[in-house]
């Protein structure tokens, strides 16, 4: 699915990622943990194609050179980023945004676009699965949403777009325990043989609900240690200090 | 690239930019009494109309072209323009669409405005103005049954002189200001609407303005009268071919609402904006004013201004009747080298009068966008209320946005609110939309449409979709 070799990324002449290697196979859930400033968000930005970075290295996604693709092309090919800070777009109805997004992706893939009725049916089903209050869907995108609502909205979008590779950038930050459960259930429901996840998080807490196949520790732009889900627990008790 | 390929390449940017090769009848070039007599004569106008025009012309000689606006333009040589140009085939008035020059029918079809009534799906009556003449008005018969008059201005002068005499110039006086007076002297055609007492107009009325001829100014005149307790919704659309020269469009629009009447006037202005380097395009210098003459009357202006090299207009309301309401909803989009100086004037004269102003200015490229507005509460306008909201959206760092609100308040019982914001489309917002599969242009269109939503909602359904698309198209190439 995704193969990263010697990935380096610079912004404003400062090197953030310093030769990162990672392989994610279909159906796998990988967690990346690391202290502040270790390059976690940079990794999710670079993988989704955000502008402003000088990037080198080799990233293959579904046997294609990912780094050559535009942001929206990556989205069309099934990469989804759940934002740490989802953006507000005033005046744009959440439902309209979701439909525009879904249909843009369908169109790019040569699939039939959904009409308003088909879309509403789909969104209602997904919203109820995620215990997501439907009223929020008719509000302006993320405007006046609570932190939890914003994050749930990201997961709702993820479940509607049905991506192949989902990157969750600190989705657990700012969530109370109930919201955390709902978000985790949403992610777990999407797990399948075909879909993979890259979960970026500060804390082990989220991994109690979403059990990863692999845990990697990112420090100073490199993965310094990899292991199974038990590594998260070890980090929780010993801290990152022990590894740096 | 040969000339034809070049033409096709250009049309990708402005799809209404084609021109129709048609034989014209023109007035001699220049502005003088003879030309005014020529116009009046060719329209077979009565003497009083010619006298009115000549009076305006006399007045014009004493007036100076204003120069206080933000967008400056090179001096216009008024003697180097044609003031009347009409397809030759219109010399002998065709009696029906079957007699209309097929080239004209084809032109309107290409513009997406089929004139055949059966071709129109949604029951919108259209008056089509081509250069200086109205070429066709649809659904006249059906409207007639309700006593509604919807015809060209020229026809109204012939057939309804009592109404024209009474109301023409009653909102925009002959000597109002340079361009309004110029229009009064040389106006050619436009629409006339009269809605009788107690009648709710059953369909949208609309006028489609097309400038085709070169070196020609378009000076249309529209007059809408809503008698007691009536209602009408009216929409105008405008396009022009792409030409390297700047062309002048100086229209006058007067609205009169009597007791309990309501007029909703919407504009989707898409005149040719000039090329990417600012060459050519229309100078859109228009005077639009509505008079809420009767008590409880209401006039609502909605404008979507995306075209023209320079847009300079202030659709205004004079709230004379007690409890009357004036509204102004505006979207002004400027891209590349376009300039706009637009807004409204709300003149509160009656008691308990209310006005609302919602203005959305969007500026991209090297463009410059000014909101200029006046809220004027007179001494006797007890309990007047105004709410103004001016939002500006900037794209890139070479464009400008300015807000110039004037407030004159002579009555202490009034309540005036003004809100203004300036924002930019952030790279983060674009990244978010791109990550959800939208390309740059789709993302900009979505964000801008969200920004303009309050105004787009005011448009009649049939035009809202079109306007939304236009908003997106106007900003193509502005990011990235």
Structure write-up:
- Chain A has seven helices and twelve strands.
- Helix content of chain A is 34%, strand content 29%.
- Chain A is globular and about 55 Å long.
- Chain A has one domain (2-243): Rossmann fold, CATH 3.40.50.300.
- In chain A, α5 runs parallel beside α6.
- In chain A, the strands form three sheets. In chain A, strands 6-9-10-3-11-12 form a six-stranded mixed beta sheet, sandwiched between helices. Chain A has a four-stranded antiparallel beta sheet with strand order 2-1-4-5, with helices on one face. A two-stranded antiparallel ribbon of chain A has the order 7-8.
- Chain A has helices spanning 40-48, 71-76, 94-108, 116-129, 147-161, 177-190, 230-238, and strands at 2-11, 14-24, 29-33, 54-61, 64-65, 79-82, 89-93, 140-141, 165-169, 196-201, 214-219, 222-227.
- In chain A, 42% of the residues are buried.
- Chain A starts with a strand and ends in a 6-residue tail after the last helix.
- Chain A has 244 residues and is α/β, with parallel strands linked by helices.
- In chain B, α3 (47-62) packs antiparallel against α8 and α10 (440-451) packs across α12 (461-474).
- Chain B has one domain.
- Chain B is globular and about 60 Å long.
- With 480 residues, chain B is α/β, with parallel strands linked by helices.
- Helices cover 23% and strands 34% of the residues of chain B.
- Chain B has twelve helices and 24 strands.
- Classes of the chains: A alpha/beta (244), B alpha/beta (480).
Report a brief summary of the structure.
Chain A is 34% helix and 29% strand.
């Amino acid at each position: 699915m995704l193969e990263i070799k010697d990935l380096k990324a610079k912004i404003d002449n400062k090197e953030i990622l310093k030769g990162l290697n990672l392989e994610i196979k279909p159906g796998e859930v990988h967690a990346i943990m690391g202290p502040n400033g270790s390059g976690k968000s940079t990794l999710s930005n670079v993988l989704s194609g955000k502008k402003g970075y000088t990037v080198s290295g080799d990233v293959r996604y579904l046997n294609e050179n990912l780094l050559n693709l535009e942001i929206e092309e990556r989205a069309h090919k099934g990469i989804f980023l759940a934002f740490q800070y989802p953006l507000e777009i005033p005046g744009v109805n959440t439902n309209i945004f979701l439909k525009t997004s879904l249909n843009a992706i369908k169109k790019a893939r040569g699939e039939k676009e959904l009409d308003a009725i088909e879309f509403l049916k789909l969104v209602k089903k997904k919203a109820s699965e995620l215990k997501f209050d439907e009223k929020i869907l008719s509000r302006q995108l993320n405007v006046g949403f609570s932190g939890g609502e914003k994050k749930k909205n990201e997961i709702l979008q993820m479940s509607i777009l049905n991506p192949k590779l989902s990157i969750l950038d600190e989705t657990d930050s700012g969530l109370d325990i109930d919201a955390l459960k709902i978000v985790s259930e949403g992610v777990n429901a999407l797990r399948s043989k075909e879909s993979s996840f890259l979960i970026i998080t500060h804390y082990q807490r989220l991994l109690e609900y979403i059990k990863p196949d692999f845990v990697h520790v990112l420090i100073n732009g490199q993965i310094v240690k990899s292991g199974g889900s038990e590594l998260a627990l070890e980090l929780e008790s010993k801290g990152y200090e022990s590894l740096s | 690239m040969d000339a034809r390929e070049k033409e096709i390449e250009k049309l990708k940017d402005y799809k209404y930019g084609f021109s129709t090769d048609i034989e014209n009848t023109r007035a001699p070039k220049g502005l003088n009494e003879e030309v005014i007599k020529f116009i009046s004569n060719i329209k077979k106008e009565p003497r009083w109309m010619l006298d009115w025009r000549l009076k305006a012309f006399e007045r014009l000689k004493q007036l100076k072209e204003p120069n206080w606006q933000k967008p400056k333009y090179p001096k216009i040589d008024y003697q180097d323009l044609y003031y009347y140009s009409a397809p030759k085939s219109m010399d002998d008035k065709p009696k029906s669409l079957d007699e209309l020059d097929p080239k004209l029918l084809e032109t309107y079809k290409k513009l997406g405005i089929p004139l055949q009534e059966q071709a129109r799906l949604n029951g919108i009556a259209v008056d089509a103005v081509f250069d200086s003449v109205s070429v066709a008005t649809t659904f006249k018969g059906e409207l007639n049954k309700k006593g509604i008059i919807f015809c060209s201005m020229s026809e109204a002068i012939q057939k309804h002189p009592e109404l024209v005499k009474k109301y023409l110039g009653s909102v925009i006086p002959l000597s109002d200001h340079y361009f309004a007076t110029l229009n009064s002297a040389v106006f050619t055609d436009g629409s006339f609407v009269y809605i009788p007492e107690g009648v709710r107009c059953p369909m949208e009325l609309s006028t489609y303005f097309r400038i085709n001829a070169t070196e020609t100014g378009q000076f249309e005149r529209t007059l809408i009268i809503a008698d007691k307790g009536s209602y009408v919704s009216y929409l105008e659309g405008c396009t022009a071919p792409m030409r390297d020269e700047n062309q002048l469009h100086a229209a006058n629009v007067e609205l009169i609402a009597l007791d309990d009447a309501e007029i909703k006037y919407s504009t989707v202005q898409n005149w040719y904006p000039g090329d990417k380097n600012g060459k050519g395009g229309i100078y859109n210098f228009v005077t639009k004013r509505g008079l809420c003459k009767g008590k409880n009357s209401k006039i609502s202006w909605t404008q979507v201004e995306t075209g023209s090299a320079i847009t300079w207009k202030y659709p205004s309301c004079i709230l004379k009747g007690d409890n009357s309401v004036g509204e102004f909803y505006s979207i002004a989009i400027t891209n590349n080298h376009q300039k706009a100086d637009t807004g409204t004037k709300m003149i509160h004269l009656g008691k308990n009068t209310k006005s609302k102003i919602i203005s959305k200015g969007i500026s991209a490229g090297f463009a410059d966008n000014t909101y200029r507005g006046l809220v004027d509460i007179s001494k006797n306008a007890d309990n007047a209320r105004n709410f103004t909201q001016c939002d500006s959206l900037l794209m890139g760092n070479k464009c400008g946005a300015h807000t110039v609100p004037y407030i004159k308040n002579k009555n202490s019982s009034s309540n005036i609110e003004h809100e203004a914001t300036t924002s930019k489309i952030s790279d983060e917002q674009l990244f978010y939309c791109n990550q959800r599969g939208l390309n740059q242009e789709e993302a900009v269109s979505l964000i801008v449409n969200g920004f303009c939503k309050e105004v787009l909602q005011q448009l009649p359904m049939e035009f809202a979709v079109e306007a939304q698309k236009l908003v997106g198209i106007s900003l193509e190439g502005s990011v990235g």
